[in-house]
Amino acid sequence: MDDLRKRAKELLETSAVKVVIGYEDGSGGKTRTLFAEKPEDAARLIFDSRCVMNLAAYVTKREIKEKGRMAIAATLPVMRSIIQLASEFQVSNDNLLVLGITPESKLLEFTDLSEVEKFVHQYQIEIEARNKEMLEKLEKMTPAGRWKFWTDELSPCIKCYACRAACPMCYCSRCTVDFNQPQWIPVPSHQLGNLEWHFMRAVHLTGRCIDCNACFNACPLAIPLNLLTKKMIEDVKANFGGYQPTLTGEHLMSTYKPDDKENFIQ
Amino acid sequence: MADFEPKIVAFVCNWCTYAGADLTGTSRIKYASNVRIIRFPCTGRIDYMLLLKAFDEGADGIMVSGCHPNDCHYTSGNFHARRRWIMFRSLCDFMGIDIRRIIFSWVSAAEGARWADIVNTTVASIRELGPYDEYRKIAAKPIMEVENHG
How far is A158 from chain B (nearest CA, A)? Predict the structure, then answer.
């Protein structure tokens, strides 16, 4: 990714941006986030198959925004997240420059977010075959079977909220789970607390999740919590049509059609 | 299970179903007393977390009811709510929460008799299903007894 390093260096030298968000080598053969603020930092930027973290989670952080205009090394899921965040007025052309990395690992520079949107729209959001199979398997189970599956799967959860920290869409300054008046979700990581936390997470991401799997990758206990958001994606698609973040579009869960179809309301 | 009396929490909108339930009373129609009605400004205000809270607190069944489509006092609250219910219900089902215990309906202010009907059928079906032990087991409160909430 010499292109990326070169471009990042230029941007920092000319002060076109104040910080470039990308990946660098971390400990234990893993990658970590790099916030390059000086031109020489740009040499540390890397990009390879280990870079799965969704960097868009940083562009809403106050301490990063405060630095000034940001540039971000963005893979396809990151670009999708950015479009969704822009549609929720969290980022704009004024404070963000997207250095796109295509699925073929080519560097693309976008002058504004509408170009990013155009690029993103070339690709559909599709659930991977392996997870689709898992969803179908779960749907075929009895409700009691599913209840057991989820209480078992969620029982190791320690409520570390790594899934929330990793998610670019979880940017609320005060999360529902942190409220104690009223206490919406019990604090301890017992069965009820875990169930309600993951339920709430899935609901809040309905129609917004762009399926980057960052939550699953961040989970220290490898809980398949991304199945919940994947299920919501499938259902939103089936019930309300298209699923693609757009700069201007209406958010699927904050709009309606008078003829939305259901079969359970008496 | 002959002496099992289901506890049912009904979340209703102020303008239609609450007024409808009022009409049931003023028309002197008798119906099952298992239902505890909670009045909301609009179905659009009924947060899904409140529904889960009802199960936490030991409800065996939940009813959610509001104005018929196109009759919303605030024009579109029930349309928004409907979209959310579709997703909420599907997620409940996916996580194994018993969706037979969550009954959604549209009841207008003029449908007092219909409200009595829906409540009676709901109570009968929940009575058949028995207490919601699965949820109550995980919600078991160490200090407060669920039964004290009346």
Answer: 16
